[in-house]
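Have a think about this chain, tokens included, and walk me through the fold.
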Amino acid sequence: MKQGNLTARIIMLLVLAAVLITLGMSAWSQFRVLYPTVVAYSYTVDDSVEATGFVVRDELVLTGVGGTVEMLPDEGEKVSQGGTVALLYQSEAGISQRETLEQLNLEKEQLEYALSTLGGGGGESVQLSNQVADAMASLRGAAASGDLTGLERQALELKSLIYKRSYNLEDGTDTAATLQASLDSVNAQIEALTLQASQSTSRVTAPQPGTFSGLVDGYEAVLTPASLDTMTLAQFRQLERQALSENTAAIGKLITDSSWYFVCPLTEEDAGRLVEGRTITVRFSRDWSGEVDMTVERLGAAEDGQVLAVLSTDKFLSDTTLLRRQTVELVFDSVNGIRVPKEALRVEQKTVTDEETGEESTVSITCVYALVGQQAELKQVEVVAEEENYLLVTPVTGTAASQSKKALRSGDQIIISSGELYDGKVIN
């Protein structure tokens, strides 16, 4: 055989093999495309409606006049009656005096602690130096390990040792006497500076106990819990349109009752699902993310197809002090299940045998097919909720172990093909 003919035949065989491989891969790919899958997963569908309204509380506006205002409580912090809410500085000198007083009070605390732990003697300078080093190592180790339970005590001990070391002079000076003299000097400075500061600084105190908030929006006087008893839908709409004037003297407010309210309009149909005295879950998601069960306090008279609803709770007050106008979800019910595509649902015929009579009959079952290994496996389900492009289903399980093993579970690969499927069909 000539060399040229042999080469031509080899080339032809290689070309043929390439064509066959290409056709095979194409057919295999098309076969797989016929049976695409998606992952089923646990999901919750809420039966809810959206509502926009106002958060209402018992609120007392705090006022004060001063050049500079220093608020002492944090947002949502509880304040006792007579407690200082703010300091008002008439000048920059007042702020400087305040900072100096804080430093002196800290120094006083450190000196008092150093005296209380002196133990009758000043101690040797070298020994105190070693104790300072040990205290620094202990404090550094606690901070590095994240153990902050004794951080304040350890810091005070370290500062106390530093004071003792600085006053433990080599000429034999009595450390206790030196510390006491320094403490007396600090107390005298605090007394004199406090007298000066009282002339340039004033305090705003809480007239009654409450929860502090720094937000004053003008609704405090016009939107009160008492007004909700008789509020109509028309009055609510007027509040929405009302322009409120700013109180320039306001520095914050106290929320004087732990109960707070949410008032909103609902359609008659949605309001008809509420019952006065019962609770409903309200989901906040804009300025605060959380759910709270609220009691239906009042449902007003219907006006133009809408009803004014008043809800109340005494939970999460400190977390919601900044909320006023809010859009929320009223959750009537929640359904849990497994989410699957609508295209995956099938209705098939199944032959069942009556255990008592032995008679066979054909029934329709609702099911999906899952890819298990290389086979399609039938999973009988019940539809519990239907949305626009998916279904929420729960597995139907029997008493037999084999049926329980074949129950649909979260994480199953669901086949969404419209092609022919049956239990046990080989896919791959």
User: Anything to note?
Assistant: The mean pLDDT is 83.
